[in-house]
Design brief:
By secondary structure, the chain is α+β, with helices and mostly antiparallel strands. The chain has one domain: Aspartate Aminotransferase, domain 1 (Alpha-Beta Complex). It is built from three helices and four strands, in the order αββαββα. It has a four-stranded antiparallel beta sheet with strand order 1-2-4-3, with helices on one face. Strand 1 and strand 2 form a beta hairpin. It is globular and about 40 Å long. The chain starts with a helix and ends with a helix.
Length: 102
């Protein structure tokens, strides 16, 4: 299973390098999700665009304590374990289509 998820993360990173090189991928390669850093002011619109494309993900704002004054920046949390193998490629395409331009 670990290698399967690592392969999915590698596919995510490769798709972003090709289609959205301005988006930084963070998070360890051993996990089940990655954090994509977005240009300032684009998190909410990216989450909405992803939903419109049929991609379920969360913005980083959903994980912040409401009383924090620490600015973490815009980003989204992308899980890559859920889609079936045959649906993963189309999910990556839809995700890339929802990302903001450079």
């Amino acid at each position: 299973m670990r290698q399967r998820y690592r392969g999915r993360r590698d596919r995510l990173v490769a798709a972003l390098a090709e289609r959205a090189p301005h988006i930084e991928v963070t998070g360890i390669a051993a996990g089940l999700h990655a954090v994509l850093r977005l240009p300032p002011g684009t998190e909410a619109s990216t989450v909405k665009a992803a939903v419109w494309q049929g991609v379920a993900l969360d913005g980083l704002a959903a994980f912040r304590h409401p009383e924090t004054d620490m600015g973490v920046g815009d980003g989204i949390v992308v899980g890559y374990a859920t889609p079936s193998e045959h649906a993963y490629g189309p999910a990556l395409e839809a995700l890339c289509g929802a990302l903001p331009p450079p």
